[in-house]
Design a protein that fits this description.
The protein has helices spanning 2-12, 22-34, 38-44, 46-56, 123-131, 133-138, 152-157, 178-188, and strands at 60-63, 69-70, 86-90, 112-116, 141-145, 166-170, 193-197. It is 37% helix and 16% strand.
Length: 199
């Protein structure tokens, strides 16, 4: 609430170079939230640093062996750093963006990722997920819903996720060639349960 009041005051000041468009302030702030701190990753481990990044950006995580979703940054679990391994990520309405995806480099146990209404998610993000060897092995399920910057090019890269069993693609206006996507996934991942809800 305080941040909202401060940002409105900043956006109403005419002398600031970015005041003509309040969205650029939020874009800048979101970029700050996504910045990778490699020293922090070394200090606390990949799972803790990624949890901090995801929660800071408004996403949720679920740890291996737990049913409850962690969504409050201030209530991140304490204790041995290697105890809490991220198993699932729900980035619904979050501000995660490509520059933050280096946080995922050391995650070895992520089985499910849900990207829903993520305005900053682009093809580069899906490509980055597909390039990370640890995620190629661990991810079993993905859902991509209402992410307007995703195109066929980004979706096709997900065929490199070797163990992907379920993929839901819904309300993606940038995805135009459904048949091409279906063929690519049938060839690369014949046992994949591909659900398409595209126009």
């Amino acid at each position: 609430m305080l941040l909202g009041k401060i940002s409105r005051k900043f956006c109403s000041v005419k002398q600031l170079p970015w005041s003509s468009d309040c969205r650029s302030f939020w874009g800048w702030l979101n970029a700050v939230f996504n910045k990778v701190d490699h020293e922090r990753i070394r200090d606390v481990g990949a799972d803790r640093a990624a949890s901090e990044w995801l929660l800071r950006c408004g996403a949720m995580v679920r740890y291996h062996g737990q049913e409850r979703w962690q969504k409050d940054y201030n209530n991140l679990p304490t204790g041995p750093l290697d105890k809490y391994k991220i198993q699932a990520i729900d980035a619904t309405d979050s501000c995660i963006m490509n520059i933050g995806f280096d946080h995922m480099e050391g995650l070895l146990h992520v089985e499910k990722i849900r990207l829903c209404k993520c305005h900053y998610i682009e093809d580069d993000c899906l490509e980055r997920i597909s390039q990370l060897e640890n995620l190629r092995e661990s991810i079993l399920e993905m859902e991509i819903i209402s992410c307007g910057n995703i195109t066929d090019q980004g979706v096709i890269t997900l065929r490199h996720l070797r163990n992907l069993k379920y993929l839901l693609l819904s309300d993606l206006p940038g995805v135009k060639e459904k048949e091409k996507i279906v063929q690519a996934f049938q060839l690369a991942l014949p046992s994949l349960n591909l659900q398409l809800n595209l126009k």
